[in-house]
Amino acid sequence: MKPAERAARLREELARHNDAYFSNDAPLIPDADYDALARELRALEAEHPELSDETSVSKKVGAPSSTVFSPVQHAEPMLSLDNVFDVDELRAWAERGAKILGEDAGALSFAVEPKIDGLALSISFVDGIFTQAATRGDGRVGEDVTDNVRTIHNVPLSLGTGVRGRVEVRGEVFLAKADFEELNRRQRELNAKEFANPRNAAAGSLRQKDSQVSASRPLSFLAYQLVDLDGSLSFARYVDTLGQLASWGFLTAAEMVVELGVDDMIARSNWFEEHRHDLLYEVDGVVIKIDDLAARVKMGFTSRAPRWAIARKLPPEERTTRLRAIEVSIGRTGRATPYAVLEPVVVAGSTVAMATLHNEDQVAAKDVRPGDLVVVRKAGDVIPEVVSAVVESGKKRAKPWSFPSRCPDCGEPLVRIGLESDTYCVNPACPAQQLQQIIHFASRGALDIEGLGEQRVAQLLAEGLISDVADLFFLRVEDLSSLEGLGELSATSLVSEITKAKAAPLSRVLVGLGIRHVGPVAARELARAFSTFEALAHAPLEDLEAIDGIGPVIAGSVYQECRELDSIVRMARLAEAGLALSEPERGGGPAATLAGRAVVVTGSVEGFSRDEAEAAVIARGGTSPGSVSKKTYCVVVGDAPGAAKVTKARELGIPMVRAEEFQRLLNTGTWSSQLA
Known about the structure:
Elements: H1 3-23, H2 31-47, E1 71-73, E2 83-84, H3 87-101, E3 109-116, E4 119-126, E5 129-135, E6 141-143, H4 146-150, E7 166-174, H5 177-189, H6 198-206, H7 211-215, E8 220-228, H8 238-247, E9 257-260, H9 262-275, E10 283-290, H10 293-299, E11 309-313, E12 317-330, E13 335-347, E14 350-356, H11 360-366, E15 373-378, E16 385-390, E17 414-416, E18 423-425, H12 431-442, H13 454-462, H14 477-480, H15 488-500, H16 506-513, H17 520-530, H18 533-537, H19 541-545, H20 551-563, H21 565-577, E19 598-602, H22 610-619, E20 632-637, H23 643-652, E21 656-658, H24 662-668
Parallel strand pairs: 2-11, 19-20, 20-21
Antiparallel strand pairs: 1-6, 3-9, 3-10, 4-5, 4-7, 7-8, 10-11, 12-13, 12-15, 13-14, 13-18, 15-16, 17-18
């Protein structure tokens, strides 16, 4: 595979996994696998500088906020941390920092603290009073979870008298191990589904529409950063900021220790690996930070992370158990994924009964067979995988497992396409594919049809009421009201939600259709370029390839999809059902003062929310990307701007326009003064 194609595929995969992890609280792969993909992409971009792109997912944090909660723009970006995986990498990071500071690494003071496996959160206070709480989101824009955070028992609603100005307290929402066990005990008493692990339980509990649900869960908050937006406070060391947070009533990590020199810092990080099970919360690593705040300023940031902090990932935990059988599941694209059926075993705090085997080649390479004793790893405490077989002296093994030649759901042939390692069921009428396709179409990242989860979709398929996504829009209340678990009121509500989805913009419909290689970013660019599905469907291949960020792989996939008979019929039925299948206009005519120009807005601009500022630029024919590049026309700098964007604009010589000039820019496309 050519480097450009591999980079494109990696970016799409990472974006998908970011969305699954940050937006849906449903990771698809272990942290270790994600880290490997991210490292491969960064290495590829470093080896081939022409592939590097400021919009690359390798330079982003988290994932866009969902449509469930109102968006909140962070006054300062909530950056992620770069990772290291062993002592040598940790020592190299410390040496690089010492070189920047012109000091000996042995003279640096490092704060060493646990990396809590929870959900990142920022809590805003104005004059000491709690005003708002937001999730990390994509690092720039998060979700407003204010009402839910008010219910967390150890989040103070006031910092006391005498506190002035705006501050943000950042940290992690988590479930303590004991609280997680108690929560699952209550679930068992109610005959309800147990939660898989503390991280997902905490994230799901916080991101509830009903704050009373959040209040019923034993959530906690651990603070690890104080952001002084108005400069009203003065500290010299990180440990002093933690002391201030504790004095205000916040929980901080009792295990945090400041160590002098690299050797002691490494020794303390090793301590966390040895004592990870002794802590009151689950941890997936150790965070090391420069204690001196002035030194942090000198060290600065990369595009996605501070240079003055690093996360050392702890090794994933492993256990051995018996492999009972190897089965195959079929996903929405038809991909056939082998998985291991295991004798249940507790790994990383949760019971594992199934584990992924990835694909046919992986099963062969690992040579695991039914009946084997196998090593199971739960990397990142998320999705378990079978690592290898354990040799048992004198025990006769079963024959090597062979990948089935036919789909276990529909009986049609399974095939491998080209040089891909994956195997596919190519029958579009396969029941398993239909189920997963419709679930994806109704999911939060696509048409966001509330009430249409996996169980409901499976029920509708089993009753013969639907067989394709288009069938959803022809359902009637009388079709649904007699179904088990659905009365007339619930049926009316579901039909209403489906009807609302008809107004979804074309970009979301394209995501929902699950076209291979087309993620949210590509879908948005395609929808903006062609405005209607009809125009997209009839576009020549060269026109698709000419769109920025699309390229031959995505273009070929879209071109083929639009010309397949099943797709043509499906889209005709969606149009018949009344779906808009169009993208809102971006502007034009006499008001197109920014036609073809990219305007980046950073910081708060008086009279505009972040979304309103972006919409104002788009309404005048421009674009409002989330990052600065050589193509940027100008950067509008408001209060508390993102440091990375300002730095990048200076590096590239991009004009920086004062926030007071924003309205003039919208009206005329020009400005009268700019920042130095």
